[in-house]
Amino acid sequence: MQSWLKGLPVVGRKPIPPYVYLVGAGPGDPGLLTMRAIECLSIADTVIYDYLASSEMLAFAPQARKIAVSDLPGEHPNRWPHIHERIVQEALAGNVVVHLKGGDPSIFGRCAEEVAVLQAANIPYEIVPGVTSASAASAYGEIPLTHRAHASAVAFITGHEYPGKEDSHLSWEALAQFPGTLVVYMGVARIASIAASLQQFGKSPTTPVAVVQQASSGSQRRLLTTLQTVANEIQEQQFKAPAIIFIGPAVGAATSPSWFERKPLAGKKILITRPAHQVGDLLRQLELAGAAPSHLPVLDIVPTNQAEVDREIRHIARGLYDGLIFTSRNTVDLFFARLRALKYDARTLAKVQIASIGPATTAALAEHNISADITTHDESNSEALLELLRPIWQGKRILLPQAAEARTVLHDGLKAFAEQVQPVVCYQQEVVLNPKSPVFAELRKGDFSHIHLMSGRTAEVFLAACDEEILIHFRSGRTVLVANSARLYQLLTEKGFVCLKTPHPQADGLLELLLGE
What we know:
This protein is α/β, with parallel strands linked by helices. The chain is 32% helix and 21% strand. The protein has 19 helices and 23 strands. Strands 15-20-19-16-17-18 form a six-stranded mixed sheet, with helices on both faces. The protein has a five-stranded parallel sheet with strand order 5-4-6-3-7, sandwiched between helices.
């Protein structure tokens, strides 16, 4: 079989470079990436990605250098030669290159142009199809492309061609008589001319029309209208690209609302401020519930004083401590990382009692097969733990792993009844908040329904970066702050912000709260 794959030398799972993959990223939902697309991303050295490719998709290529096409020279459409040049440069430098393209590369994706460039440079390539926007918008908007009673054909049309131009490749007269569904890509800006041309050549003004904006994402919007009124309604309701327009009798069979619009968190835009390594599958769970989550990390966890932590672990092994207290998931994970690095395991802790603050910390211990002997029901409640420990840890020798920024309440309280309290700093919180992030422009417009804040320090840094225009939305409740603990909830409400508290501090506590609203 004739193929660009035939005879390609392969070493293990990774092809011998240079090699280029032209990969369809689908309409935006990372769940619609194909398995082949994920495989290609997993072996890429360089990923050149279009603006429709989400950060969650890029996570499938943690080893790769990422290049946004928007950062290359030129403005659309003059940027394409620069994209082609960069792909060739990267491939000839010996890198496996993925060009991650919205939708399907072969449908209005300039695939043929890129192939011609790669063939001229004698660079082997592979085309990986993706879910095209028309198919996604049809499914997620519940708008039939075909219908046994109404349409047995579908035509994909680019809206970039101006109706009536002399050198047009489209016959609007023929399209007006087309006996199926017309699907217009990139047509929002020119819908008035498109609708007028179709009506001029005989398309009925009452022909059903649907518009789906940002299909498959939590920001999806849908408009059901007619050919006569679509231009005015798009303008009035401020529909913008990326959007797909459906025209034809089958569109009249669209379900209202669609299955996607009936999802429990549909229309909610949520900002997550957790460190990148703690997000887990929270973003995906929110997406599956219909929300549009964004991630803006505020703090990062940086391990410190590993030699000191190692020393104290050896002291535990020698029986020099009676008690060990964990105050957060971070202290648990970093402590056990050092425990393993020293070739110890959970048996090393057999002779010490272990206390933890809150269910999230207790759950983190359980992941290391450790059951806490004493724990509090509320996160960040050092005072409650002190009350539990006071009658049973009198005269004990206690090790307290903690953050550099930890409150002194627990340490000071333990000193009142313990024989020895040894704090050891195992990490510090580094500010990674990007004040130039486009998220702040969305915050000023009040676009977010909820913002999830992890801790007092997270809230302090985040709120300091917000101007008065943003803070007004927090006070009015247009944007609701969500606290991860009772103490943080109290701090935020005392500042006059509208606030909710998650039922528990684990990542899915936010999801439980929002689904219960």
